[in-house]
């Protein structure tokens, strides 16, 4: 789990400018900055206090995202990790199936918190098809990437981009692009 978050942090850092550019088209141009700040804080926290269990790692990472990211993406990605961590519980070893179940729970919690559904042009358009492919990490990463690109022709129905109405059409959703980075990082470390 630590390696997953480390690889995610590296991906977010490398792609922060692109994420902010996506958010400048249909939002307020802070998504890359938000994600970079959040994940940098996650790594600082994890390095400061070693966690005893995989679930504990995700729980602490999620809490850190919630408390360090002001934008909508902080509570949403924070909830994804926090609820997934909670679902893993105190287990010292986690199987691929356990992780799939936990992430499914985490993604469902994101849907509950934000009230978005598939096709609303949010991070869920990458997360939902991805978890459906787990525990095939390669297929999940591919599905997240495709799901993110599939947001381009959609009109946003949730979040800041929804204020643009029709004008949100033709742009990739930044949060979905970030979700694809996280799933890509998971594939990378699982391999
Ligand atoms: P903010 O919109 O507050 O500036 P960010 O720019 O960091 O926050 O994140 C924007 C991303 O958050 C969007 O691209 C979208 O994927 C995601 N998002 C916003 N609102 C919701 C929601 N209600 N449900 C799911 N995801 C959402
Ligand atoms: Mg924004």
Topology readout:
Elements: H1 2-26, H2 31-48, H3 54-68, H4 73-88, H5 96-114, H6 124-133, H7 137-149, H8 174-190
CATH architecture: Alpha Horseshoe
Q: What percent of residues are in strands?
A: under 5%
Q: Which structural class matches the secondary elements?
A: mainly alpha
What is the terminal separation in angstroms?
13 Å
CATH top level is: Mainly Alpha
> Helical amount among residues, as a percent range?
55-70%
* CATH fold-level topology: Serine Threonine Protein Phosphatase 5, Tetratricopeptide repeat
Number of domains as seen in the coordinates? 1
**Averaged pLDDT, please?**
97
The CATH homologous superfamily is called DhaL domain
Order of helices and strands: HHHHHHHH
Overall 3D shape: globular
Give the names of the bound compounds: adenosine-5'-diphosphate, magnesium ion
Ranges where pLDDT stays below 50 over 5 or more residues in a row are none
Q: Roughly how many Å is the radius of gyration?
A: 15 Å
Number of strand segments: 0
Distinct helical segment count: 8
Taking the sheet with the most strands, its summary is: none
GO biological process, one term: glycerol catabolic process
GO molecular function, one term: glycerone kinase activity
Protein name: Dihydroxyacetone kinase subunit L
Keywords: Kinase, Transferase
Compact description:
By secondary structure, this protein is mainly alpha-helical. Helices cover about 70% and strands about 0% of the residues.
């Amino acid at each position: 789990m630590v390696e997953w978050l480390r690889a995610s942090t590296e991906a977010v850092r490398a792609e922060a400018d692109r994420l902010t550019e996506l958010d400048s088209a249909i939002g307020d141009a802070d998504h890359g900055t938000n994600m970079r700040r959040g994940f940098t804080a996650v790594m600082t926290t994890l390095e400061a206090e070693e966690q005893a269990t995989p679930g504990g790692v995700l729980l602490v990472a999620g809490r850190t995202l919630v408390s360090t990211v002001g934008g909508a993406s902080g509570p949403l990605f924070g909830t994804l990790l926090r609820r997934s961590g909670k679902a893993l519980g105190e287990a010292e070893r986690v199987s691929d199936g356990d992780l799939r179940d936990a992430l499914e729970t985490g993604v469902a919690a994101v849907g509950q918190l934000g009230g978005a559904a598939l096709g609303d042009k949010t991070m869920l358009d990458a997360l939902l098809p991805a978890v459906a492919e787990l525990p095939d990490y390669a297929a999940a990463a591919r599905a997240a990437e495709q799901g993110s690109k599939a947001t381009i022709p959609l009109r946003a129905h949730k979040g800041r981009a929804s204020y643009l109405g029709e004008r949100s059409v033709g742009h990739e959703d930044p949060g979905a692009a970030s979700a694809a980075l996280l799933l890509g990082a998971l594939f990378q470390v699982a391999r």
